Every structure is written in structure tokens, then in C-alpha cells.
């Protein structure tokens, strides 16, 4: 017969197994600090302190935002309301710490740091910021989403730190995996942590949702861990440098890089031991069955320090278009190679082989010069093109109107 002590050990072990199984099986078991109404629909603007599960007023939230050395505020990239949360957090952070703050941004790559320095110092206009950082190719989301935030930084001379890696470096790892890189290529890498069990589990779920080539998961995981550690190194390198010592940093990244802390926040903390907080702008799911990264029952971690409930509010893009195909491969030459039927360009009698030399008086030397100018206009505005046609200069006014290629 088993002794009472042995029986008690059996009971404890069985109880632990039951508890752990229940936690994994029940969606709400580990989400005990998330109010049930999150699944039913919070009111927009609600702020939830996740360690306690309590809704808090904005004034209390603002006090929390002035505590950490590093404040992470996430985003769903295309959601206007998430960017509003970021801007308000920046204003609160700046009001408290003044010139002692810097901004870290996923949206910019490290090689463009000098461009950001010029922007923050007021030496650069918006067009040249976008051109010199190759915004459209390197980031790609509409600049209107970030304009207010970046203008606030410029107006207040707040330094911006470029966090991200170049597309070229990420593509090398995507193609070869970390183990397949040459010794020279590996010198470009930060110290990379591939050991976090819950981070791996989370990314397996993300991968399964979007990919079916399961044999490629390890390379996908390598890329994600490299990405997190590269940006973590960018933050840590600055905050431990002579210029960054004593500074406070507010970091703007996609929600996936801060959720559950195991992306960037944990990796920065491991390098610096600086106190931090995370803010997750949370989009309510229209369908309760939709994948929800903060409701994963098998990850026994709180997804963030704070949730700010935001509505789906995406940018209504109404950029003007000419309706032409441009050849911009020749040095400093932008040539029309095709004019679409019934387009503004056709109505204005633009011709194939017209060389565009200016738009609204601004010199054109590449495709970006045209696309940027058109993005500043509404679809019913007009623009003045200066062209060369068979060597002869012409000025043509194009009356713009809503048009789609068919």
C-alpha cells in the first residue's frame, strides 16, 4: 500500500497534469486577465491593463507611458487608428521627457540613418525623405499613414533611429537560411536567439496560416529571428552608445514584433536590462473565428502590458493618375511608352515617346518625381507637364479624373 506521502505526490502530479491540459484546451484558461468582453466587442478607445485585466482611464495610461526607458507601441500597418495611438503616445512621452527622447522606427533601414538625421534637423523636405530612403520600395505602405508622426518629430527636432535591415540581407537568409550563409555574410548578422519555445510556436501558427510549404519553415523562422534581433540590436546599440546614454526611446513597430514580448522587447532587455512597457493597438475581430494573435491558449504569456482597442479604419487612397506607361530606365529620362485609352493622359493628347522633363514646375528625372507629385493631388485636380516631343518643348495641362486601368 502506498504511503500517504506518496499518495499526496500522485495527487499533486495528477492535479498539475489536469491543470496544464485544461489550460491548453480552454481558450480562456491562460487568458484569465483578458476581459471576456474583448471577444464580444469592447468599446473603441478602451485601454486595458493586461497584468490586472482592468480597464483604465486615459490619464492613468498616460502616467504609465512616462515610466519606462523603452516604450514599444505597435501597429497594424494600414490602420489609421493604430497610428493615432502611436502619435498620442509620442506626444505624452515627449511632454514628459522633452529633448531626452528618441524614436525608433521599423519603417526605415539602417543605411538611411543620415537621411533621418537630416529630416529631424529640418534640413530635408518630405519628397527627398521618401526618395532618399526609397520608401516605396523598402517599406511600401502609404506615407499618409505616417506623415503626422514624422512631422511631429521634425517640428520638435526629435531624433529618429532606423531599426530595420535591408531587403537584400533578409533575402539572403530567406534563400539560404542562417546555416547556409558564408562566413563573410554571417559577419553582417547580430547575435541571434533561436531558442524561444513560445516564439517558435507562435510563428508556426503564423506560417501555417499563410504558407503550405512546411519544409520551408526553418528558413522562415531564421528570417523572423534575424529580423527581431537585428532591430533589437539597433535599439540596444543606440541606447548604450555615448549619444544614447540616459535617453528614453519610443519604438514604433508592427504588433507582431512586440506581442508576448518574445520578439524585440525580450531581446533588447537581454542586451540592456532597461525597463520597458508594450502597447498593443488591438483591432476587434469581426468574426470570432478569425485568427487572433492575442488569444492563443497554448502560449501562457500576457500578449502586452496594455491593449488599446481600435476600430478598423483604413486609409481611403484617392491618388490621381495619368494613365500612362513610363520608361524610366534611361539615366535622367522619363519617357512615355504607352498611353491608355480614355485616360487623363489620352484626353490631354499626350503621345508615346514624349519625354517628361517637369511636372508643375518641378524637374523630373525619375518615375518617383511623377508619382510623388500625383500623390499630392486629388483625382479631380489638374497638373501641368513640361515635355519634349521630337525635340520641341511643350507645356500640356492634364485635367485629372478618377480612372482605373481595365
Q: What report would you give on this structure?
A:
This protein is of the alpha/beta class. It folds into two domains: 37-310, Rossmann fold, CATH 3.40.50; 324-399, PDZ domain (Pdz3 Domain, Roll). The chain contains 15 helices and 14 strands. The strands form two sheets. Strands 2-1-8-7-3-6-4-5 form an eight-stranded mixed beta sheet, with helices on both faces. Strands 9, 10, 11, 12, 13 and 14 form a six-stranded antiparallel beta sheet that branches. A hairpin with a 4-residue loop joins strand 1 and strand 2. Helix 12 packs across helix 13. It is globular, with a radius of gyration of 26 Å.
Summarize it.
The chain is 38% helix and 18% strand.
Characteristic key phrases:
eight-stranded mixed β-sheet, 406 residues, Rossmann fold, globular, alpha/beta, six-stranded antiparallel β-sheet, Pdz3 Domain, 2 domains, 15 helices
Order of neighbouring strands in the sheet with most strands? 2-1-8-7-3-6-4-5
Overall spatial form? globular
Please give the radius of gyration in angstroms.
Answer: 26 Å
Domain count, please report it: 2
Secondary structure class reads alpha/beta
Give the H and E element order.
Answer: HHEEHEHEHHHHEHHHHEHEEEEHEEHEE
Kindly report the average pLDDT value: 88
Q: In this structure, how is the largest beta sheet organized?
A: 8 strands, mixed
How far do the termini sit from each other? 83 Å
Percentage of residues assigned to helices: 25-40%
How many helices? The count is 15
CATH architecture of the largest domain: 3-Layer(aba) Sandwich
> Do you know the CATH topology of the largest domain?
Rossmann fold
pLDDT below 50 for ≥5 consecutive residues: which ranges? 4-30
Amino acid at each position: 500500500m502506498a504511503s500517504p506521502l506518496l499518495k499526496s505526490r500522485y495527487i499533486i502530479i495528477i492535479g498539475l497534469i489536469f491543470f496544464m491540459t485544461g489550460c491548453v484546451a480552454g481558450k480562456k484558461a491562460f487568458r484569465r486577465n483578458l476581459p471576456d468582453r474583448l471577444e464580444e466587442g469592447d468599446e473603441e478607445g478602451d485601454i486595458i491593463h493586461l497584468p490586472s485585466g482592468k480597464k483604465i482611464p486615459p490619464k492613468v495610461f498616460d502616467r504609465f507611458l512616462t515610466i519606462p526607458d523603452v516604450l514599444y507601441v505597435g501597429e497594424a500597418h494600414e490602420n489609421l487608428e493604430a497610428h493615432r495611438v502611436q502619435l498620442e503616445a509620442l506626444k505624452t512621452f515627449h511632454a514628459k521627457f522633452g529633448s531626452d527622447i528618441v524614436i525608433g522606427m521599423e519603417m526605415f533601414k539602417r543605411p538611411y540613418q543620415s537621411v533621418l538625421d537630416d529630416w529631424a534637423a529640418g534640413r530635408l523636405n518630405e519628397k527627398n525623405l521618401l526618395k532618399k530612403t526609397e520608401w516605396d520600395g523598402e517599406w511600401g505602405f502609404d506615407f499618409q499613414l505616417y506623415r503626422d508622426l514624422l512631422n511631429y518629430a521634425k517640428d520638435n527636432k526629435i531624433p529618429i533611429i532606423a531599426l530595420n535591415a535591408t531587403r537584400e540581407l533578409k533575402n539572403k537568409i530567406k534563400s539560404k537560411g542562417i546555416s547556409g550563409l558564408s562566413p563573410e555574410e554571417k559577419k553582417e548578422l547580430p547575435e541571434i536567439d533561436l531558442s524561444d519555445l513560445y516564439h517558435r510556436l507562435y510563428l508556426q501558427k503564423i506560417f501555417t496560416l499563410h504558407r503550405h510549404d512546411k519544409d520551408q519553415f526553418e528558413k522562415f523562422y531564421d528570417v523572423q529571428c534575424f529580423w527581431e534581433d537585428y532591430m533589437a540590436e539597433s535599439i540596444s546599440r543606440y541606447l548604450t552608445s555615448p549619444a544614447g546614454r540616459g535617453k528614453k526611446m519610443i519604438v514604433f513597430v508592427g504588433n507582431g514584433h512586440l506581442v508576448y514580448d518574445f520578439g524585440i522587447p525580450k531581446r533588447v532587455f537581454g542586451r540592456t536590462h532597461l525597463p520597458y512597457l508594450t502597447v498593443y493597438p488591438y483591432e476587434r475581430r469581426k468574426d470570432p473565428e478569425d485568427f487572433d494573435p492575442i488569444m492563443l491558449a497554448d502560449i501562457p504569456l500576457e500578449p502586452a502590458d496594455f491593449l488599446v482597442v481600435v476600430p478598423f479604419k483604413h486609409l481611403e487612397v484617392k491618388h490621381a493618375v495619368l494613365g500612362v506607361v513610363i520608361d524610366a530606365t534611361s539615366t535622367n529620362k522619363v519617357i512615355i511608352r504607352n498611353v491608355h485609352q480614355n485616360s487623363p493622359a489620352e484626353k490631354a493628347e499626350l503621345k508615346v515617346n514624349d519625354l517628361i522633363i517637369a511636372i508643375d514646375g518641378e524637374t523630373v528625372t525619375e518615375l518617383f518625381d511623377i508619382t510623388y507629385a500625383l500623390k499630392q493631388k486629388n483625382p479631380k485636380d489638374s497638373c501641368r507637364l513640361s515635355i519634349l516631343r521630337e525635340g520641341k518643348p511643350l507645356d500640356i495641362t492634364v485635367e485629372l479624373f478618377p480612372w482605373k486601368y481595365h
